Amino acid sequence: MLKFIKHNMETISGIEIYPIISLLIFFLFFVGLYAWVFTYKKEKIAEMSNIPFNNDNAVEL
Predict the structure, then answer these.
(1) More confident site: 22 or 2
(2) What are the residue ranges of helices labelled H in 1-61?
(3) Rounded to whole angstroms, how far apart are CA atoms 6 and 47?
(4) Distance between CA 33 and CA 27 in Å, rounded?
(5) Whole-model pTM?
(6) Are 25 and 31 in contact (CB under 8 A)?
């Protein structure tokens, strides 16, 4: 089955750029996510980590 798909892909001109673009998007997304995580304010992280322990938003049954 793969030989049929591979043969069809070889006949399309300019298709070799799509795997490169996909890899670049994948790489840039995770580099951006890494940068965002390490530049996030520590106070905000501490505040969000304590949200489950706050009783202000408790649901009454």
Answers:
(1) 22
(2) 2-10, 17-39, 42-49
(3) 52
(4) 10
(5) 0.58
(6) no
